[in-house]
Specification:
Blueprint lengths: L7 E2 L4 H4 L19 E2 L2 E2 L12 E8 L16 H7 L11 E2 L5 E2 L4 E6 L4 E6 L13 H12 L18 H5 L9 E2 L8 E5 L22 H4 L11 H4 L8 E7 L3 E6 L10 E9 L4 H6 L5 E3 L6 H5 L4 E16 L3 E3 L4 E3 L9 H10 L2 H8 L5 E2 L23 H11 L3 E2 L4 E2 L9 E4 L7 H14 L4 E3 L7 H10 L7 E7 L7 H4 L13 H10 L7 H18 L2 E14 L2 E2 L11 H4 L1 E2 L6
Parallel strand pairs: 4-13, 4-14, 21-22, 21-23
Antiparallel strand pairs: 1-23, 2-3, 5-6, 7-8, 8-10, 9-10, 11-12, 12-13, 15-23, 15-24, 16-17, 18-24, 19-20, 25-26
Helix pairs in contact: 9-11, 15-16
């Protein structure tokens, strides 16, 4: 799904992350055989049956930890919150409508006009756009989102180098200005237009998810009196958020479920459902829950459940090319919160790129995918996901299993074997041990982690788990976003990335999400080249992406592990379900059901 909030941390780990790439389509019903497919997943499910009035929809959020439930994208960091917010905003949470390839087009909650010569963006809100309390959405609401991100008092993790391209935003962020000079109100703060002045124009600005401007909006009148440090925990954000989409939150059971009802002030066509309930369901029980007809749709269903789910005759397997990739990141430094930059200064054997490369070549990713993902995940060659086929450099091969090459790299780099302990010594001749911060998330997480530890043992690298056990997602997220925990050496995770392929906000020197803190002058140049004005020429940008991937491969800055498709089992009573990004603004308003209960 499109991610306008740039990057969110996936909440299911390792093997359980990957979705079905070759999933079957289920048995025939009211489905048109002409529906588009990705692999063997249907992009849309066409149910022509008559809809029922006052229908309800039950959605499963598949994960093994409670959701955080932060209904303000500027303060949230994980995929669960993004999915939970969709009925109240849109798929991906963007105010802009796009075509199927993420290019912004007119017709959404807001339109945007970019002026290349003037280096400006003018955002115009839909004339009938209102909050669920009946108040109009205003230009100040658009600007307030920038205040939340850029004012450190709010504690947002979303301030980035990309956003600092807006005139005056860095000064506001650093406390040198009380307002953002590059943001103005052509029709006043209560009007429906916001104008943004950039320092430079970048090629991704015409795409949703570029990260060079926000695509969210927050109700200033509703949140202005909440102390910044208290906003993330406030009832206005956690329990009683306002929305501008087809539905509004009516009830939140903290960490467990969210119930939506119709928003009477929605600017679009009247939503067709009376109620939507989104509930947390564990990875181990989702197949049984679907068999028992408890849910109509499942988000983030693990591939381990696929064989059982595809056999259910009343469910259709739908999906789309994923914006998700998984990775191994090495802890090479820290994040300087005062200067808002990553510093690659940690004293660790992992500063030697040969060790990082060797660890990548020791991983048997293909075997893990085959055993734990029904062969439905593919090993990643880079951090550029396949949906951006034009920019993924096929000559970059990633790190296929090659124990011989891994050992050769370590030998040449001076990591000698300690014959007594059967592990290698560092280049100074001393024993070393690496701490693996591995996440929990599925029944297979422990087996996968132990498998990789044994793989690294084969090349003489001594690895132990952080605190000798797996780490839950919420704790893992706190450690990562803190940026200064030095008790781990490398970790595995996954990113659900933006619908523009730029990775400035993921690996730049100023990116809080650069969890490994890898940063060099050359990397900075390569990232800048990708987003340069010259790169508005797609051929120039393609070559810039190729050079970036080749450098990341050589440096083993991160080890990309797997790609997948997003997989969504959908009950056959659902009407209007589509994964086509051209319908992201209207999907939830168009959903209905053709029976009073799940088939």
């Amino acid at each position: 799904m499109k991610k306008s909030t740039k990057y969110v941390m996936g909440f299911v780990t390792t093997a359980a992350l990957f979705s079905a790439v070759l999933a079957g389509c289920g048995n025939k019903s009211a489905t048109k055989t002409t529906d588009a497919t990705v692999g063997n997943l249907k992009v849309s499910y066409t149910n022509n049956a008559k809809t029922v009035k006052n229908g309800t929809l039950n959605v499963a959020m598949v994960q093994d930890t409670p959701f955080q439930g932060i209904f303000a994208s500027e303060l949230s960091n994980d995929a669960a919150d993004s999915y939970l917010a969709e009925p109240g905003t849109a798929v991906g949470g963007s105010i802009f409508k796009t075509n199927s390839q993420f290019k912004i087009v007119n017709g959404g909650a807001a339109d945007i006009k970019l002026d290349k010569n003037a280096k400006t963006a003018t955002i115009t809100l839909h004339k009938n756009l209102k909050w669920s309390d009946g108040k109009a959405v205003t230009a100040k609401d658009l600007e307030f989102a920038y205040e939340i991100v850029a004012n450190p008092a709010y504690g947002s993790q979303r301030y980035t180098d990309s956003l600092a391209n807006i005139e005056g935003l860095a000064e506001f962020h650093n406390g040198k200005a009380k307002s953002i000079s590059g943001i103005s109100y052509p029709k006043g703060q209560n009007g429906n237009q916001l104008k943004i002045q950039f320092k430079k124009m970048t090629p991704g600005m015409w795409q949703s998810g570029s990260g060079y401007y926000l695509e969210s909006v927050e109700p200033y009148h509703y949140l202005k009196d909440v102390k910044p440090s208290k906003l993330v925990s406030s009832k206005q954000v956690r329990q009683q958020p306002l929305s501008y989409g087809p539905y509004k939150v009516s009830k939140v059971v903290s960490g467990q479920s969210v119930t939506y009802v119709q928003n009477p002030y929605y600017y679009g066509s009247k939503p067709k459902l009376k109620q939507i309930t989104m509930s947390v369901v564990s990875t181990s029980s989702i197949a049984a829950a679907l068999k028992a007809k408890k849910y109509d749709i499942a988000y983030e269903a693990p591939s381990t459940a696929y064989p059982s789910v595809k056999a259910l005759k009343d469910y259709v397997q739908t999906g789309q090319k994923s914006l998700t990739f998984s990775y191994i990141a090495f802890n090479l430094g820290h994040y300087d919160t005062k200067k808002s930059i990553n510093v690659m200064d940690r004293k660790t054997p992992l500063q030697n790129k040969s060790l990082r490369q060797a660890m990548g070549y020791a991983m048997n990713v293909d075997a893990v995918n085959k055993k734990f993902n029904n062969g439905l995940a593919t090993r990643a060659n880079s951090t550029i996901v396949p949906v951006f086929d034009k920019y993924n450099d096929k000559s970059v091969k990633g790190y296929p299993l090659n124990i011989k090459k891994a050992n050769s790299l370590l030998n040449k780099a001076g990591f000698k074997w300690d014959s007594k302990h059967q592990y290698r010594l560092n280049t100074n001749g001393k024993a070393f041990k690496l701490v693996y911060l591995a996440r929990s998330g599925s029944a297979n997480s422990e087996a996968v982690a132990q498998n990789y530890i044994q793989q690294w043992k084969k090349i003489g690298v001594h690895v132990t788990l952080y605190h000798d056990r797996l780490t839950d997602f919420n704790t893992w997220g706190q450690i990562m976003t803190n940026g200064n925990n030095q008790n781990w050496d490398f970790t595995g995770g996954n990113w659900s990335v933006a619908s523009d392929p730029s990775q400035m906000d993921l690996y730049s020197k100023g990116a809080p999400y650069n969890f490994g803190h890898f940063t060099t002058a050359k990397l900075t140049k390569l990232l800048n080249d990708i987003d340069s004005t010259k790169a508005i020429d797609s051929k120039v940008r393609q070559q810039a992406f190729y050079k970036y991937q080749q450098y990341m491969q050589d440096q083993a800055a991160v080890i990309p592990t797997s790609f997948s498709l997003d997989w969504y089992p959908v009950n056959k009573r659902v009407v209007g379900w589509t994964n086509d990004h051209a319908n992201d603004q209207s999907r939830w308003a168009n959903l209905a059901v053709s029976a009073s209960s799940t088939k």
